Amino acid sequence: MSIRRCIEIMARVRNIAIVLALLTATAGTLSSQDTVSTQMAQDSVPKVELRILPAQLDRGLPRSFTFVFVNRSGHQLRIPRPTQCFGGNGTVVLRSSFKPLNTRGIASGAGGGCGAGLLEKIEVLEWAKSWESIAPGASFSVSYSRQQLFDYQEDAGDYEFWGEYVPPKLTNEDASLLERAGIHFPRAPLVSTHLRFRRLN
Question: DSSP letter at 83?
């Protein structure tokens, strides 16, 4: 074999090695990006899902709603039992939108609300002992009538309902104490999907 031929073969081998090295590096980068993307996707999944379930339909409208908290995290969660009044243990709120069939009529509904008052000063870790415990994949629920949730609209028309959860106000110090004790709890407000109903008369 001539020297020139040997040089050509060595050049080709070197080029192949460079291409393989580039492919390996690219694959590693893509793998890392996939790992990061997967982690980001997991982090973006809500840890708690809020649902509302209607009950006791009366002429097409629910007489009450159940607020369901579903634990989507991989660990146990705790939550103080919320009420329909603002303050204290946190609040569940029924939101609604109404479109009357008779646009010339006067709407019958009226709003309302209440305050729960301030809880007596209690050590937060002691208070957390009374909270509801929700295992991974499990749920916890509270139910209230529409009247208890201050929704009094009864006219014929199209209704849209959705639920909201407002967590109790905790100081940064109390939140840190709970986290250091390994107590996980929903700290951010939650919103459910919307449900639609129609009352004809």
Answer: B
The CATH classification number of 46-199 equals: 2.60.40.2970
Strand partners for 53: 66
Low-confidence residues of the chain, pLDDT below 70? 1-46, 105-121
Structural domain boundaries in the chain: 1-44, 46-199
Structure tokens at 180: 């250091």
State which amino acid sits at residue 146. R
The tokens for 33 are: 């990006």
Is 0.85 surpassed by the pTM of this model?
A: no
Q: What is the pLDDT of residues 54-63, one digit of tens each?
A: 998 999 999 9
- The contacts of residue 195 (CB under 8 Å, 6+ apart) are 52, 54, 160, 161, 162
